[in-house]
Amino acid sequence: MKTPSPAGRPFGKPHSFLVDEDTKRRLHELADEYGPRRVSALVRVGIRRLLDNPGNLTADLTTVAPVPDLRPEPPKARIAVALDDELLVHLDALAGRRGSTRQELVYLAATRILRHHTGIETLMLDEMYRAPGNRQKLITRHARERRRRTGHGDAD
């Protein structure tokens, strides 16, 4: 496991990316299944999937809704995604090979994860628990929060 940074950021420094309001809302809805403030982990899962299987990236970049421009045009929303140096290097390398930008790839990863999010629970748990700490404690807390949110497991 990677040792935590002196600033206490085991997932890396937060980076800000632009998405449209609907994408941000849908990311928050999907991430809420895993607990509060999980959008960053969800987008990292999308980025890792994109890096593992870029597929036809050029076609995806042209068929997916237009990537938000960096100029402030409403209704654009910002999402913060913590990215460590290793993930940034791979993301930038893919962007360089494909002639795109980090912003475009993160937006593409976010929209892909929203379209194809079946079976990501294991990936989400792995991503959330990359940080050092008591893994079993975190897994137990996740299970407890999930039961509470879904109403399953209530014996009362």
Topology:
Elements: E1 13-20, H1 21-31, H2 39-52, H3 57-63, E2 76-83, H4 85-98, H5 102-115, H6 121-128, H7 135-150
Antiparallel strand pairs: 1-2
Average predicted confidence as pLDDT: 78
Shape: globular
Radius of gyration: 16 Å
In N-to-C order, the SSE pattern is EHHHEHHHH
Which class do the helix and strand fractions yield? mainly alpha
Helical residues, percent? 40-55%
Using DSSP, what is the number of strands?
A: 2
N-C termini distance? 40 Å
Q: In order across it, which strands form the biggest sheet?
A: 1-2
Largest sheet: 2 strands, antiparallel
Attribute tags:
single chain; mainly alpha; 7 helices; two-stranded antiparallel sheet; 156 residues; 54% helix
Structure description:
The protein has 156 residues and is mainly α. The protein is built from 7 helices and 2 strands, in the order βαααβαααα. The protein has helices at 21-31, 39-52, 57-63, 85-98, 102-115, 121-128, 135-150, and strands at residues 13-20, 76-83. The chain has a two-stranded antiparallel ribbon. Helix 1 packs across helix 2, helix 2 (39-52) packs across helix 5 and helix 2 (39-52) packs across helix 6. It is globular, with a radius of gyration of 16 Å. The model has no long low-confidence stretch (mean pLDDT 78).
Outline:
With 156 residues, this protein is mostly helical. Helix content is 54%, strand content 10%.
